[in-house]
TrEMBL record:
Key words, A-Z: Acyltransferase, Transferase
Transmembrane segments: none
Region listing for Disordered, in residue ranges: 1-21
Cited InterPro entries: Acyl_CoA_acyltransferase, Bact_Acetyltransf, GNAT_dom
Name of the molecule in the record: GNAT superfamily N-acetyltransferase
Gene Ontology MF term list: acyltransferase activity, transferring groups other than amino-acyl groups
Originating species: Kitasatospora kifunensis
Superkingdom assignment: Bacteria
All residue ranges annotated as the N-acetyltransferase domain in the record: 1-120, 125-280
Gene3D superfamilies, per database record: 3.40.630.30
Pfam families noted in UniProt: Acetyltransf_1 (PF00583)
Amino acid sequence: MTTTLRPAGPPTATPDGGADRRWLICSNGRPVGTVRTVARRYGSYLVGRIEGLAVTDAARRRGRGTVAVLAAEEVLRAWGCQRAEVTVPVQAPPAHALALALGYTETNLHLLKRIGQPAQPASGLTIRPIGAEDFPDWLEATKAEFRAQLVRAGLTEEQARQRCATEHTRLLRQGHATQDVALRRLLADGRAVGSFWLALDNGRLPDGSPLAWVMTVDVAPELRGNGYGRELMLAAERECLAAGVRDLGLNVYSGNTVALGLYTSLDYRITHWVLTKTLL
């Protein structure tokens, strides 16, 4: 049996200078599945994504998924991608095992919660917007932390710098006044102790429900362990409800057991694994 990829349509150029193409997975010329390759540009380098891998039930367990992923990686290499990323739902442990077997490393987890009615702020704690005066310092600190996280996830310093600059420019086009974004600080007895960045329009779930996303939540290192992270998350949930959004997601880096423990204690559940691989 020979497994190959056949184009399901022409390639599409993405607004950032990348590419997007869908493929049929074929066995001896007969379609048995589909896969999609996407290249995203961050400054001068490209990151590839392999998405929508699906093999028909009758064709599974014959190595076709493995061959399809390897073929998709070759497409990404030909496009100039230096890394490949895959996102795997937790309902698909075999796909997670396949990615690990092919040399992918788990870097992130996606979590989701259907918000109920969060508690009101504890006594002495208040939330206030991050305005024009505070925004530059907040942004610089946020970028520094994001760059450090990207390096820990395997990017070079330069790749991390370019990806960070691209992402923040795209997501905060109007700075502190960007539409559908909430930037907030937490104050304890008037002293700033933490902050969060909330995207109130992060697409929709499969059932059509609007989805918000916690982009960052940060507590001053010397003040961690005092419950401020929990208060920030509850404040983000209140922001969502005020905007009419009941589903809130977030990303946590694998190995950050403290953050994962906080989120699971607040009833967030893991929905996806994110894995990456360097394309040599």
